[in-house]
Amino acid sequence: MNSFDTTSSVAIVTGGSRGLGRAITAALLDRGWTVVVDARRSADLHATASALDSRRLIAIPGDITDPAHRDALVSAAHDAGPLRLLVNNASKLGPSPRPVLARYPLTELQSVYEVNVVSPLALTQAALPALTKTGGVIVNVTSDVAVEAYPGWGGYGSSKAALDQVSAVLAMESDAVAVYAFDPGDMRTEMHQAAFPGEDISDRPSPETVVPALLKLLDTRPASGRYRASDLPSAGTGA
Questions:
Q1: pTM score, two decimals?
Q2: 15, 29, 95, 133: least surrounded by Cβ within 10 Å?
């Protein structure tokens, strides 16, 4: 049995026009959720909305670093029904090719942190009162580079490490809300291709293969914490 009555549940998914965000959005719609989704590139977002073709999809183009845009997401979710899920999926890789930390442009690093750490926390702050009322869930999409040191991954990896810590502390401070740092592993996405310019990443799994693990978190509602998709058995397909 699912943790939520999905026919009356609302989710916010950031960065939902492509990749993992799009796959999560499609899966939630299939389960009966209403999904408020955003992306910076309005053309991509509208194309995704057209392809998914659901009256329960509310697409709002904008930049997650913009406070007015974050307010619009939460307002749309409030108008649509009880907000029960926030998926902070939008991320910024940073420069490509990936620079070493000794030569990392600090203005770029600030931008990476603004997208990957500050904005998810800001959106969480705005959504937390509603999520507390519903006993909802926050999912912060993280990465293995948050816990493993790899050359060239200092900017993105340290931002995801910070997001992991934000998730852990939020979980300690918010008893009514489950908070998960979700590590999907390598995927065949535009961002992953940008991280490896000119390389063939066709051997990486598609984002759709990761979604069942995320659904498992929603279905079983384990203790708040950091979870890798590879460690979670697939969820059932029921709505």
A1: 0.91
A2: 133
